[in-house]
């Protein structure tokens, strides 16, 4: 295994030698779980076809960005009502925020949102959380490195298989139901779009739009997209409570640009400060510190280091987001990393939270839409602060992803 760190090295690999780093290594647990299908961990040509399909499904037809924006706005309203019910008292927000943000993925994939107490939604969210926790556990890391030595010790972590089997059973049942009511002229979900492609695909020995691939694709999108964005949003609320002066600046900009209307994506361009704060939350939150592993399909030289064909490569995104050359104050929460001296928003090329190259995150645009709309709606309606007498801790709960440590927060309603 080779570890690449720092922006320039990671960029040289993933961008300048994109095709060489487009594959995934054989990771024992993931290969067993996914049987090399789906998107996240597949090789060959499946991932290319699935990626293309997923991008266009999120962009085109009835699921175009306006429709997705409407779904997010509806979910923001529900989340505001749920927060209001706490009446400004301290509460632990992880379940409710994760459920609300996950509901967008559910709605895009299945065609309709579910109530927060719907048993299917609650089970899906718990299932994915448990699996992300298990994947980050030291025993699974050891098993992936020395599978034959640690197979026996995997023990209770075997629940990862039952969780996955349960999720796949749910997805399979959903597909069977959607097949029965499919109307090619009224595609309402990503599953519908896939089923239409399935009908169009000409018979050939290498079919891509099969039921099995649909089950793996949906499972991958659930796994990669359900908790990631809500974790970033929870970092955002915690950071606002920790830095009230930054929170006030965001609220002032919301008042100036949006007033009491509903936030929409068109506002983003007029809100450089809020945009910079959201980008800094992505950087500081650093939720995917090691990215997802890559694999070299040819010999390659990266920044003078020779890496042979067939090497597993970890891109330390953490080191990129803390690269001193690109971020003036890497260890501080400093929105100025994304602002010029006149207060205009500036992109910072080293913000690789979603990675780069051929296997970069397919949900990047969707995640950014969700972050902007949820963040502005919540800050328009509430001021976030620590419970009386409490000190907020910014230490991350490290695993495969980094979430804030369990904490309580107060959402004080604003007039
Ligand atoms: C703020 C939220 C998110 C962050 C920080 C994030 C980050 C990442 C990262 C670092 C990777 C690995 C890229 C690589 O291997 O080089 C990735 C892959 C992926 N993400 Fe995300 N992601 C987020 C949200 C989402 C959402 C909402 C979806 C669902 C649509 C999603 C779907 C995927 C998929 C399917 C892959 C695998 C792509 C492939 O293997 O070709 N992600 N993401």
UniProtKB/TrEMBL annotation:
One matching Pfam family: p450
GO CC annotation: cytoplasm
Key words of the record: Endoplasmic reticulum, Heme, Iron, Membrane, Metal-binding, Microsome, Monooxygenase, Oxidoreductase
Gene Ontology process terms (BP): aflatoxin metabolic process; organic acid metabolic process; xenobiotic metabolic process
Transmembrane segment boundaries: none
UniProt cross-references to PROSITE patterns, sorted A to Z: CYTOCHROME_P450 (PS00086)
Cofactor requirements of the protein: heme
Cellular compartment(s): Microsome membrane
GO molecular function: heme binding; iron ion binding; oxidoreductase activity, acting on paired donors, with incorporation or reduction of molecular oxygen, reduced flavin or flavoprotein as one donor, and incorporation of one atom of oxygen
Residue sites binding heme per the record: 361
Family the entry assigns: Belongs to the cytochrome P450 family.
Protein name: Cytochrome P450 2K1
